[in-house]
Amino acid sequence: MPLRLEGVEVSLGRRVVLHPLSCTIEAGECIGIIGPNGAGKSTLLKAIAQLLPYRGRIWLGDEPLDRLAPEVRARHLSYLAQADRVSWPLAAYDLVALGRRPYRRGWQWGDDGLSEKDRKAIEEAMRATDCWSLRARSVETLSGGERARVRLARALAVEAPVLLADEPVAALDPRHRLEVMALLRAQTEGGKAVIIVLHDLSLTSRFCDRLLLLDRGQSVGFGPALEVLSPESLGAVYGIEALIGRYRGEPYVLPWSCHEMP
Length: 262
Ligand SMILES: Nc1ncnc2c1ncn2[C@@H]1O[C@H](COP(=O)(O)OP(=O)(O)OP(=O)(O)O)[C@@H](O)[C@H]1O
Known about the structure:
- There is one protein chain.
- By secondary structure, the chain is of the alpha/beta class.
- It has helices at about 40-50, 70-75, 90-95, 115-130, 145-155, 175-185, 200-205, 225-230, 230-240, and strands spanning about 5-10, 15-25, 30-35, 55-60, 65, 75-80, 160-165, 195, 210-215, 220-225, 240-245, 250-260.
- It has a single domain (about 5-260), classed as P-loop containing nucleotide triphosphate hydrolases (Rossmann fold, 3-Layer(aba) Sandwich).
- Helices cover about 30% and strands about 30% of the residues.
- The strands form three sheets. A six-stranded mixed sheet has the order 6-7-8-3-9-10, sandwiched between helices. Strands 2-1-4-5 form a four-stranded antiparallel sheet, with helices on one face.
- Helix 4 packs antiparallel against helix 5.
- The longest helix is centred in the middle third of the chain and has 14 residues, at about 145-155.
- The site of adenosine-5'-triphosphate has 12 residues, from strand 2 and helix 1.
- Adenosine-5'-triphosphate binds near residues 12, 38 and 42.
């Protein structure tokens, strides 16, 4: 189902932190949201996830998202937050199982409430993110990267048609970064829309179909990576120069030097 944003605008306190934004994200597309610190990337993702009040309208297919019943919305949107705080000793498996909460009907004491389908989705998500071997470990005892993979597994276990991920690879080593980006991209093959907030310009350029470049709450580019990330836009938005090219046919953007501050 396509996701359509129509004049989406967010104010926090007295400030407009996201100016009216309209765009359509097709089913089966992987979109990278990029931009400097404070540009409004997480704000936009939270607005799509219905976690912030916004003006305008967001449509999933023919339905305005804010009109969907919460339990229906929870099955349609999966959101992986940027924050990485886990404050209680929960087994990794149980954290991932929370991703199946939107499907649960009843619950009785002593019953984990998981169906066979739930267990399959949990195991698949944990194996795909290379954390099945961590399933019995308390999430408090995991390293930052291990915990990030468990949290991503929770988001994948929802099996929602729209997956929103805020900096899903920030804590990961290079190999796991590549694996997780390939995994997120692979989600689109079944028709999911995947929207990822990322700072790594090479990973976004390579794995996302289109990039949305935000600067001070405004959209300043939306399209294929090498159209959006030109030497001019990198200079104007980030104040940097970068090596831009293709390797084995795929784009990369490697930040290289900072412009002199005026
Ligand atoms: N509760 C709030 N009240 C007022 N301003 C806020 C609030 N939350 C965020 N902001 C401001 O909104 C702007 C956008 O924040 P947001 O977190 O969306 O940026 P971002 O692009 O995700 O940044 P980063 O790359 O640093 O994570 C920032 O200037 C931030 O200071």
